[in-house]
Design a protein that fits this description.
Shape: extended
Distance between the termini: 55 Å
Order of helices and strands: EEEEHHH
CATH architecture of the largest domain: Roll
Helix content: 40-55%
CATH topology of the largest domain: Nuclear Transport Factor 2, Chain: A
Number of domains: 2
Number of helices: 3
CATH class of the largest domain: Alpha Beta
C-alpha cells in the first residue's frame, strides 16, 4: 500500500542529536487508526574529504489493540530507567500477576479434564465391542 496524504492523520517529530523520532498517526483502508513510530538516524557513509550522508530508518507499528499494553510497559521501563521503580518491585508484581492467572485457570482446567476422562471410559467400552457391533453403530 503506497502512502498518501489521506493515510496520514497527524505527525510529530522529535530531534535528538543525530536522530529524529517521528510519531505518525495513520489510518488503514478499513478506517482503523494506528501509530507508526520511526527512528531516522543520519549516517556518514562517505569519507572525511567527501562526506555522503544517508538516513537509516527503523519503523515500529502500533495497533489499537496493543495501545494500553504498550503504554504500561513503556511507563514501567521509564520508571526503572529514571529510578522511580525498582526492578525487584516489578518482578514481585509480575510474579503475583502470573500466580493469579494460574489460580484462575486451574478450575477451568479441572472442568475441562472431566469430559476427557468420560471420553476415555467411552473409548474403552467401544474397544470391547465386536467389529460387527461397531459397524452397526455406524449405520
Amino acid at each position: 500500500m503506497g502512502e498518501t496524504e489521506k493515510d496520514l492523520i497527524y505527525s510529530e517529530g522529535i530531534k535528538a542529536g543525530k536522530r529524529i523520532y517521528y510519531f505518525d498517526v495513520k489510518q488503514s483502508r478499513n478506517g482503523d487508526k494506528y501509530i507508526a513510530i520511526t527512528e531516522s538516524k543520519k549516517i556518514n557513509e562517505g569519507t572525511i574529504d567527501n562526506p555522503r550522508f544517508v538516513f537509516e530508518k527503523h519503523k515500529l507499528f502500533l495497533y489499537k489493540e496493543d495501545y494500553e499494553k504498550f503504554v504500561d510497559a513503556l511507563n514501567r521501563a521509564l520508571g526503572v530507567a529514571k529510578g522511580t521503580i525498582s526492578v525487584a518491585e516489578l518482578r514481585a508484581q509480575q510474579t503475583a500477576a502470573q500466580e493469579a492467572v494460574q489460580e484462575a485457570e486451574a478450575p477451568a482446567q479441572a472442568v475441562a479434564a472431566e469430559p476427557a476422562a468420560a471420553t476415555a471410559e467411552e473409548e474403552e467400552k467401544t474397544e470391547k465391542k465386536s467389529f460387527l457391533d461397531k459397524v452397526k453403530d455406524i449405520f
